[in-house]
Specification:
FMN, oxidoreductase, tRNA-dihydrouridine(20/20a) synthase, alpha/beta, 8-stranded parallel β-barrel, 17 helices
Length: 334
């Protein structure tokens, strides 16, 4: 199991939160541009919490020498895996001719992978789509994997949708191109010697378990972010371990303590951290008023522990019918 790299979401604070819920799931950074690491502040881009292991660094770029330098720095900082993004369809990424655009240049991807593998000892992996635009040609993705594998890559994380580089936003690219899980299953059948994981639209244990009948791994994206308590079962279900030993209340308190450490050590405002845990009480009665307290900008200058107390007070007193009533929130913030 792994949690997908998600821009603006899976920062080190989010990963610290997820690690409280699952000890063994592989966590990924947001995509980091290789040039940003080399020229925009190495520490700013690579700093993470020791508790996050196992954690993979996802790189964006298309210049083999820069990717190799960034990968080497990632290994020196202690990341457990280096992953190359060949799936992001955003306009900014397209202008830089990397992300999903790289699937049109498999030999370039192979050159980049080889350059990284030559300088690091940790695994170098690739995350990609099953195709580009509206052409649904199995041979395209089969040949992409074959070419990249010749450079020594043996792990492929496959988002089971095409990336439409024209006409769709990144958000629409996560929903509109049809999911075609059967393509990923066919890839595994054709390349049984490689580790192949699937990503895209998976939201339940039933679907995870069905995919694991065909594939080596499952990567979860938005559902892991919006419904993080799901992760608390993964160590037991997929690794033969125990479920998360913490209650939701203990996880929240651990995050408050983390907010206090971050504020003291790095000056990090607590809202930058709290936003990642707003799904902790997903679907529970009282969850909405609890989220509203933690999200209230009028409280941003108060200490995190004080906001925690207000949120818990509001949550404890909220009945399901109060979810849409602003009065409870007003009472909690006065």
């Amino acid at each position: 199991m792994s949690v997908a790299p998600m821009m603006d979401w899976t920062d080190r604070h989010c990963r610290y939160f997820h690690r409280l819920l699952t000890r063994q799931t592989l966590l990924y950074t947001e995509m980091v541009n290789a040039g940003g690491i080399l020229y925009g502040g190495t520490e700013r881009h690579l700093r993470y919490n020791a508790e996050e292991h196992p954690v993979a660094l996802q790189l964006g770029g298309n210049e083999a020498d820069k990717l190799a330098q960034a990968a080497k720095l990632g290994e020196e900082w202690g990341y457990d895996e280096i992953n190359l993004n060949c799936g992001c369809p955003s306009d900014r990424v397209q202008r830089g001719a990397f992300g999903a655009s790289l699937m049109k240049a498999p030999q370039l991807v192979a050159d980049c992978v080889k350059a990284m593998k030559d300088v690091v000892s940790v695994p170098v992996t690739v995350k990609h789509r099953i195709g580009i635009d509206k052409v649904e040609d199995y041979g395209f993705v089969r040949d992409f994997i074959g070419t990249v594998a010749d450079a020594g890559c043996t792990v492929f994380i496959v988002h089971a949708r095409n990336a439409w580089l024209q006409g769709l936003s990144p958000k629409e690219n996560r929903d509109i191109p049809p999911l075609r899980y059967e393509v990923v299953h066919r890839l595994k059948a054709e390349f049984p010697q490689f580790t192949i994981a699937i990503n895209g639209g998976i939201t339940t244990d039933d679907v995870v378990q069905e995919q694991l009948k065909h594939l080596d791994g499952v990567m979860i994206g938005r559902e892991a972010y919006h419904n993080p308590w799901w992760l608390a079962r993964w160590d037991q279900l997929y690794y033969g371990g125990a479920t998360c030993a913490l209650t939701r209340e203990e996880v929240e308190l651990a995050m408050v303590e983390y907010m206090e450490r971050e504020a003291a050590q790095h000056g990090t405002p607590w809202p930058h951290i709290a936003r990642h845990m707003l799904g902790l009480r997903h679907s529970l009665p009282g969850a909405r008023i609890w989220r509203q307290v933690w999200s209230n900008h009028l409280l941003k200058d108060r200490p995190a522990r004080e906001v925690h107390a207000l949120a818990m007070q509001a949550y404890a007193s909220a009945a399901p019918e109060q979810h849409t009533e602003p009065g409870a929130l007003a009472a909690a913030t006065t």
